[in-house]
Amino acid sequence: MNERTQRRSLRERYRLFVSILIIPLGAIITVRAFMFGLQAWTLIILGLAFIGLGVVRLWNYRQGALVRDSSAQKGR
How far apart are CA 10 and CA 17, in angstroms? Predict the structure, then answer.
């Protein structure tokens, strides 16, 4: 596990950090929009979109990490 952490570049760590932060941001937007009721339906959709974006970014990051790890093992 420590080797995997050391192999991550600053760019990869930053992308992971931003992806993790997008999910609670979307949750906060959604909860606050629900406080206003259905008049704020666009904000509800925006919050859900942020949550979806964060999840998709994390999934893509994980898929990319799996591909990099498998290709690194083939190269040995």
Answer: 10
Supply φ then ψ for residue 40, to 5 degrees: -100, 40
Q: Residue 57: which domain range? A: 14-71
> Exposed (0-12), middle (13-18) or buried (19+): which is 33, by Cβ within 10 Å?
buried
Query: Residue 54: inside a domain, yes or no?
Result: yes
Distance separating alpha carbons of residues 63 and 12, to the nearest angstrom: 13
Average pLDDT taken over every residue of the chain? 88
Running DSSP on this structure, what letter comes out for residue 68? Answer: H
0.85 cut: is pTM over it? no
45-to-18, 24, 74 alpha-carbon distances in Å: 20, 15, 43
* Joined tokens for residue 50: 């942020």
